[in-house]
UniProtKB/TrEMBL annotation:
The keyword Nucleotide-binding applies. Keywords: ATP-binding, DNA replication, DNA-binding, Helicase, Hydrolase, Isomerase, Metal-binding, Nucleotide-binding, Primosome, Zinc. It comes from Neorhodopirellula lusitana. One of its GO terms (molecular function) is helicase activity. Initiates the restart of stalled replication forks, which reloads the replicative helicase on sites other than the origin of replication. Recognizes and binds to abandoned replication forks and remodels them to uncover a helicase loading site. Promotes assembly of the primosome at these replication forks. This is Replication restart protein PriA. InterPro entries: DEAD/DEAH_box_helicase_dom, Helicase_ATP-bd, Helicase_C-like, P-loop_NTPase, PriA, PriA_3primeBD, PriA_3primeBD_sf, PriA_C. It catalyses: Couples ATP hydrolysis with the unwinding of duplex DNA by translocating in the 3'-5' direction; ATP + H2O = ADP + phosphate + H(+). Residues 1-87 are annotated as: Disordered.
Length: 848
């Protein structure tokens, strides 16, 4: 294996694959001593907080995740501090006598992590009363520092250990009856914490939805059972009503609420209260779901269902996936199927196979393509599907989570967070449109669902199926060096041809036509489409009306005071808005700088395009779809079903309309400006452009009437646009890989980014310089070859009033980049009064 192969996004095996059967069983001691070295005990009350803020000794060392053939040996190992155990034994000339050892080892310890600083893990003693019940994956209350109240923490391990020479404090209380995540998920949390350099407590907060943690939609109910050892004599001495209550309870033999008892006996709740006081009735409090949670019914958009006979190509793909499912091994499959090749049907059939063996599956899709159509396709084929989406109420989310955990759900469909769905018997994970950037979370923990899904699948010994018409460079590279198995579906179903793509060179005046965004050829094509009773889709990846507001007299650009980015003019309501922070003002009627009366709105957004389209095609029914028009729940679904029913002739909008839609009557797709993503200061700009154009082009020609695509561009010769216009994915990746290789950019090398932000520019920059110095010395100490760029202001130099600087680290191996940062920042602190934050983004997808 080469160095290059080894650091690929998909190849690292973060932890030892486990027997699938064991994976969902919660064991009380899933971590051996060697997996979790002795963690420090909780800071005692006497120590000042500052003493225990130092996180160096508490991070999980990188060698916790043993390597295998795909994961190169961690180069940095032996420099760990000697463990506390080793230090302790050195103090003794001879070993302690055996009886002392026995006493010491008798202590049961819990390793606890916290989501707020200090993050732990710290060791606590488990008191005898909790011995039986405390399991990893549960929340506990423990004493921490000087705090009066106990602090909420997560138990990550239960282990036997020594209490000698350590001041151990006791776990105070259990906050859950059963673990919120099983042993396999606890391990996933620990791995994520390590890989993404985030405290494990914060990963738990991401993994377990807040609605679940808060018990949304539940209430506490008290159930009564009769005390043990009640004699008939005791009972007959009770007043009549109380007797009746006790006898009823004994004869029914099931715990009952006070209200139910009162009704059954025909008394008030008073006798029950008295019995409780006398300890004849024993209360038990349970948390239960409300029976009346409103689960929003979601309807299909009207697509007709038919049983499909798989094409030969689909059948071959299915067989390979089924073989992988049956193999019981963790492996990655890349399903590269052109747009309209019928990937969804393959996923469904593969999941049917999993379900037939009592297994379950997760399907992740970009939120935006979680259309009623996608939903409907799955819901009509499985008995029990849980669809997770961002517009769910907390109680609804909690309700589904419980169903999923109880094993009542066969398929979970959702955006990236669905990767954490606590399904027992998970047999397959599918990541549809795996190239989509929404699979990366852009807040802490900045995880990528593909990477996490890979970790989870490998640990459980199940396949991860990646699907796309335009696979990411990472997935493609993995398939080329044997880390993922490539399954190709090069043809559309029913032998439909790929649509013809025509490039319109906007530099040529004749092509461009008059004023406006719709060129002459596109104009003609739309008219033709409408005449033929077909439908059209126009893509423009910018919302708003005008994207700049500039004074033609003094050149002043109206910008956001907090972000320095130009404000976008929105026509409805005459607002000028910052698209980075939502700062909004009334659009100024004259120049705020020189008072010139005649300020100009430049640049093109979807609102302006809509106006132009309505003027140019007065007979067409036109709908706009962007995040401004799709704010209300259900609006997405409504527009899509109108489009399906033929009540809309033209759909125009942002990338929302580029993904996953399958409407047979779309005869024309127009791309207003293919270059919009091309000139971003990002090494993935060409890849994004290729994907966007290919995906939107793929929305046409999906029926029997064929389809065509018109792509407007200022750079028709650009390789990404050329390749997209010929549906030539292979040519694109081949050329793009050469570019990546020049600078060892992913997937050939690994990148991490550190963002430093603060209210004062010079102080923020000074902190960034300080981090650079630490990174350099960590690199030298490790003897690693990491390229460090910056600190420099990123393209967005100021955001929400904070100045920003960033550093980029790049090396051939991910482990080297990670370890360099871990070492550099281990005990790095900033002065709290400067309010400077720094955050680490491993494998960033956004460099703005
Ligand atoms: N075996 C088949 N026979 C006939 N029609 C099929 C078959 N398989 C799928 N289809 C239909 O082909 C259309 C395209 O399928 P699907 O939406 O799954 O494509 P896709 O590969 O996911 O495309 P995209 O990447 O563009 O989303 C759908 O309308 C689907 O019902
Ligand atoms: Zn702003």
């Amino acid at each position: 294996m080469t160095m290059l192969d080894s650091q690929l996004m998909l190849d690292s095996q973060p932890f030892v694959p486990e027997d699938r059967k064991n994976a969902s069983v919660v064991s009380s001691a899933p971590f051996s001593q060697s997996t979790f070295p002795q963690t420090p005990s909780a800071p005692p009350a006497e120590s000042s907080p500052a003493e225990f803020l130092n996180p160096t000794s508490v991070t999980v060392p990188s060698d916790s995740f043993p390597s295998d053939e795909l994961f190169p040996p961690e180069p940095f190992k032996s420099q760990e501090e000697p463990s506390a155990d080793a230090a302790q034994t050195e103090l003794f000339e001879t070993n302690p006598p055996p009886w002392e050892l026995a006493v010491e080892d008798d202590v049961l310890l819990a390793s606890i992590v916290f989501s707020k600083s200090p993050h732990g893990p710290y060791d606590y003693r488990i008191p005898d009363s909790l011995r039986e019940d405390l399991k990893p994956g549960m929340r506990v209350g423990v004493p921490l520092g000087h705090r009066k109240k106990s602090t909420l923490g997560w138990c990550v391990a239960v282990k036997e250990g020594s209490a000698a020479h350590r001041k151990l404090r006791d776990v105070a209380e259990l906050l859950d009856d059963t673990p919120l995540c099983d042993a396999a998920l606890v391990r996933l949390v620990m791995w994520m914490g390590h890989y993404y350099q985030v405290p494990a407590g914060q990963v738990f907060d991401t993994l377990i939805p807040s609605s679940v943690r808060a018990g949304a939609g539940t209430r506490q109910t008290t159930y009564f059972t009769p005390a043990k050892d009640l004699t008939d004599e005791q009972i007959s001495k009770l007043p009549a009503k109380q007797q009746a209550v006790v006898r009823l309870l004994i004869s029914s033999g099931k715990p009952t609420t006070a209200a139910e008892l009162a009704v059954a006996v025909g008394c008030t709740e008073d006798p029950i209260r008295r019995l409780r006081k006398k300890e004849i009735l024993i209360p038990e409090v349970r948390r239960e779901m409300h029976s009346n949670i409103r689960i929003l019914a979601q309807h299909n958009d009207g697509e007709r269902k038919q049983k499909l006979e798989l094409t030969e190509q689909q059948q071959a793909a299915l067989e390979r996936i089924n073989t992988a499912v049956d193999s019981g091994r963790g492996r990655t499959l890349l399903l590269h199927g052109v747009t309209g090749s019928g990937k969804t049907e393959v996923y469904i059939k593969a999941i049917e196979h999993v379900v037939s063996q009592a297994g379950s599956a997760i399907v992740m899709v970009p939120e935006i393509s979680l259309t009623p159509q996608t939903r409907g396709r799955f819901e009509s084929r499985f008995d029990s599907v849980a669809v997770l989406h961002s517009q769910m109420s907390p109680s609804e989310r909690h309700y589904h989570w419980q169903r999923i955990r109880r094993g009542e759900v066969q398929v979970v469909i959702g955006p990236r967070s669905a990767v954490f769905a606590p399904l027992p018997n998970l047999g397959l994970i599918v990541l549809d449109e795996e190239h989509d950037t929404s699979f990366k979370q852009d807040s802490q923990p900045r995880y990528h669902a593909r990477k996490v899904a890979h970790a989870r699948a490998m640990a459980l010994g199940i396949p991860l199926l990646l699907g796309s018409a335009t696979p990411s460079m990472e997935a493609w590279h993995a398939s080329q060096c044997g880390h993922a198995e490539l399954i190709s579906m090069p043809n559309r179903v029913a032998n439909r041809p790929m649509p013809d793509v025509q490039l319109v060179d906007l530099r040529i005046r004749d092509e461009r036509g008059g004023s406006g965004a719709i060129s002459r050829p596109l104009h003609a094509a739309v008219l033709e489409t409408i005449r033929d009773k077909g439908q059209a889709i126009l893509l423009l990846n910018r919302r708003g009306f005008a994207t700049t507001i500039q004074c033609p007299s003094c050149g002043h650009v109206v910008a956001c005071p907090d972000c320095d980015m130009p404000l976008t003019h929105h026509r409805d309501g005459g607002k000028a808005m910052c698209h980075y922070c939502d700062y909004t003002i009334g659009t100024p009627p004259w120049c705020p700088a020189c008072r010139f009366d005649g300020i100009r709105y430049g640049g093109l957004g979807t609102q302006k395009l809509e106006m132009e389209a309505k003027a140019k095609f007065p007979n067409a029914r036109i709908a706009r779809m962007d995040s401004d028009t799709m704010k209300r729940p259900g609006s997405h679904q409504r527009v899509l079903s109108e489009f399906r029913n033929g009540d809309i002739d033209m759909l125009l909008g942002t990338q929302m309309i580029a993904k996953g839609l399958d409407f047979p009557n779309v005869l024309l797709v127009g791309v207003i400006n293919a270059d919009s993503a091309l000139h971003f200061p990002d090494f993935r700009a060409a890849e994004r452009t290729f994907q966007l154009v290919t995906q939107v082009a793929g929305r046409t020609g999906r029926g029997d009437r064929g389809g065509r695509v018109i792509v407007q561009t200022f750079t028709p010769e650009h390789p990404a646009i050329q390749a997209a216009s010929r549906h030539d994915y292979h040519k694109f990746v081949e050329e793009e890989m050469v570019n990546r290789r020049k600078f060892n950019y992913p997937p050939l090398g690994s990148v991490a980014r550190i963002i430093i932000r603060g209210p004062l520019e010079d102080k923020t920059e000074a902190v960034a310089d300080g981090i650079l110095a630490r990174l350099e010395s960590a690199r030298d100490l490790l003897g690693s070859e990491v390229r460090i760029l910056g600190p420099a202001p990123p393209p967005i130099g100021r955001l929400r009033g904070k100045y920003r600087f960033h550093l980029l680290l790049q090396a051939t191996e991910a482990a080297v980049v990670g370890e360099t940062i871990r070492r550099a920042l281990a005990d790095f602190k900033t002065d709290p009064k400067d309010e400077i934050e720094f955050l680490v983004d491993i494998d960033p997808v956004n460099l703005l």
